[in-house]
Amino acid sequence: MPKAIPAQVITQMDAQQASPVLLFELYLTATLRFSATKINFTFPTGGNVYTAKTIEIDDVQQSIEGQIGRVVCKFDNVSRDMSGYAHNESFSGKQLIIKRVYRNQVGSATYYNEVFNGSMERPSDIGRHWLTVAATRGKPLNRKMLKFAYQRMCPWEAGGTECNTDSNFDLTSLTASGTADSGTTTTLVDNALTQVDDYWNYGNIEITKGSITYYRKVSDFDAGTDAVTLDVELPVAVDNTCTYVIYKGCDQTWNTCGANVAWGPSADNELNFGGCIHITSKLDAGM
């Protein structure tokens, strides 16, 4: 006669069956779905398949009410899949959702807790073993509150949907495109860029080489050399086969975004700024 399974073992088996699983959804061009498990996980039953991946959460910043305001995630990159996405996709501003589901309640799509819902930053580290990316602006609790940080710096990017509410900010007039003359893995040079020093600072640039497009931020524009310096090094060198589209940016402060200076969009952008301009700095107040 087979022996009966001890009650304590059955209790442990039930606990494992009901144990929580973290699911990660990265809304890039195509949605990436990962589960922090050893095998693929399907949620809900018969629905989306979440690919098993080793994922570590390095840092979580929470409010006193338990709301997650910022999270840093490390995704396994041994197979180079994540670095491939980082080279070909722009993570910045794209949505990251982390869900907690329970193994014994995967039948319905409603059986989950949304742990985090926010916008990703650019990957801060792309290594042989990990890709590290942070996300901020978590989903707020359901209470009366400001929807963004009350500060002098605008929480939105120039030309974004939040800053374009009255259609005065037209990004089509703040872009340039062409073919590079030369460059390196960190610079792009085009003599057709005749703007003044720093004109393209804080902007975005899309560089295409061999049918692959790379997304970067502009850290500096030198009018003397017509050189655009990138914030993150490319995996390939820029040459005269590369095409590009560059978008004017803004340092998200009123003094530069609201005024017609080299790196400000234009004086017409005042209604689109979106920051709390009536908060004076210590310097403005003479303190």
Q: Report the sheet with the most strands, covering strand number, pairing sense and barrel closure.
A: 10 strands, mixed
Average pLDDT? 78
Proportion of residues in helical segments? under 10%
Describe the global form. Answer: elongated
Radius of gyration: 23 Å
Question: Given the structure, what is the number of helices?
Answer: 3
Topology order in helix (H) and strand (E) letters: HEEEEEEHEEEEEEEEEEEH
C-alpha end-to-end distance: 86 Å
Structural class: mainly beta
Beta-strand fraction estimate:
25-35%
- Counted up, domains total 2
Helix and strand topology:
Elements: H1 7-17, E1 20-27, E2 31-35, E3 41-43, E4 48-52, E5 55-62, E6 68-76, H2 81-88, E7 95-102, E8 113-120, E9 125-126, E10 130-136, E11 175-179, E12 182-183, E13 187-189, E14 204-209, E15 212-222, E16 227-230, E17 243-247, H3 254-257
Parallel strand pairs: 2-4
Antiparallel strand pairs: 1-2, 1-7, 3-4, 5-6, 6-10, 7-8, 8-10, 9-10, 11-17, 12-13, 13-16, 14-15, 14-17, 15-16
